[in-house]
Design goal:
- Strands 2-3-5-4 form a 4-stranded antiparallel beta sheet, sandwiched between helices.
- The protein folds into 2 domains: about 100 residues; about 170 residues, NADH Oxidase (3-Layer(aba) Sandwich), CATH 3.40.109.10.
- The chain is an alpha+beta fold and about 325 residues long.
- The protein is built from 13 helices and 6 strands.
- About 50% of the residues lie in helices and about 10% in strands.
- The radius of gyration is 23 Å and the shape is globular.
- The protein starts with a helix and ends with a helix.
- Bound molecules: flavin mononucleotide.
Length: about 325
């Protein structure tokens, strides 16, 4: 009998996992934006991330004037840094400047005096980025928003957005169940279907979970039902499948978003990319099986008669696709 056959299977997998996870760790450490925004792509991502915070603020059910002051300073500084290093050509940087101008316009229009230092920063950005037209966030009626829920896929897909405003009307659980039934059409690796859905209906519980989630300021309190999407790791066998839970779960989440839209439910998908500490905290307030991981949450509710939606400007097609 050779030595290899004496090693228990669990130890074999453990020993195999170490170099594979180390490889992933190394790649993430080296290539992600973790350490700095020196890379152009990381700086652009930071700019998008920060202007998205501002456009979300501009579309909140009740916009708090003067909101996001600290974020505006950082955003303006990042835009200036980008322009100095790479010029003023990137579509996302141009869009960031438009969002900054929209922020200024809104405050001017409503007679809210912005911080003097912020106005100076804004002016100095305007001097180097000769952008004049502000962005305009979307304002839409309920009937217009849902006018394509049974149209061609082209119109249907173009009409779905993350909406962060819900009416007080009770959202029927049956509609959510219908959406989950439809989302089961999602493909999964070897049809193992790891996705699981937990629906929370109690306002206090929803608040408790959303407080831990943390990315729902200004609209989380309006959530009528909270959908938690998890996926089960126990259906995957090899080290090669270590991220399959997230791939399959992510695909399911997207299908569920479409299915909710089809059911005329407003929703906003919420981040569950946690550190170990936050994951443990979340498992306390929002229990899922031990073998399951969080994929995302979806805050949802019935639509008010009129609401605003963040633009979330998309990159041009050339940035998405290369044909060889
Ligand atoms: C995985 C994931 C996590 C997200 N987390 C949040 C979040 O925590 N809070 C939030 O307001 N929006 C969140 N969003 C929504 C994005 O901001 C939104 O999808 C993006 O801006 C594109 O806009 P659209 O959904 O309207 O097309 C998340 C989206 C995804 C895909």
């Amino acid at each position: 009998m050779n030595l290899k056959s004496k090693i228990p299977v669990s130890l074999k997998y453990f020993l195999k996992a170490i170099p594979t996870f180390s490889y992933d760790f190394y790649r993430f450490y080296k290539y992600s934006g973790l350490n700095s925004t020196k890379k152009e792509s990381s700086l652009v991502a930071l700019i998008i991330h920060d202007y998205h915070v501002i456009e979300k603020g501009l579309t909140m059910p009740e916009t708090q004037l003067g909101f996001g002051k600290a974020k505006m300073f950082i955003l303006i500084s990042s835009c200036k840094d980008y322009i100095k290093r790479f010029g003023y050509n990137h579509e996302q940087v141009k869009h960031a400047v438009k969002v900054i101008l929209e922020y200024k316009n809104l405050h001017d229009k409503l007679g809210f005096k912005l911080d003097e230092e912020l106005i100076n920063e804004l002016q100095s950005l305007k001097n180097i980025a000769n952008e004049t037209s502000p962005s305009v966030q979307i304002s839409i009626t309920k009937s217009d928003y849902f006018s394509h829920t049974s149209s061609s896929f082209l119109e249907f897909s173009n009409s779905r957005k993350s909406v962060r405003n819900y009416s007080e009307k009770n959202l029927s659980i049956d509609k959510i169940i219908n959406a989950v039934a439809l989302a089961r059409n999602t493909p999964s690796a070897c049809n193992r279907q790891p996705s699981k859905v937990y629906v929370y209906t109690n306002k206090d519980k929803i608040k408790e979970i959303l407080d831990v989630q943390g990315g729902n300021r200004g609209f989380g309190h309006l959530t009528n039902k909270l959908i938690v999407i998890a996926a089960d790791q126990s259906v995957f066998f090899g080290i090669n499948e270590r991220y399959q839970t997230y791939v399959d779960g992510g695909m399911f989440a997207m299908n569920l978003l479409y299915a909710l839209h089809h059911e005329k439910i407003l929703g906003c998908i919420l981040n569950c990319s946690h550190t170990d500490k936050k994951d443990k905290q979340m498992r306390e307030v929002c229990p899922i099986n031990k073998s399951e991981v969080y994929i995302a949450m979806i805050a949802c509710g019935e639509a008010p008669e009129q609401f605003k939606i963040a633009q979330s400007y998309r990159n041009s097609l050339e940035k998405y696709v290369k044909v060889f």
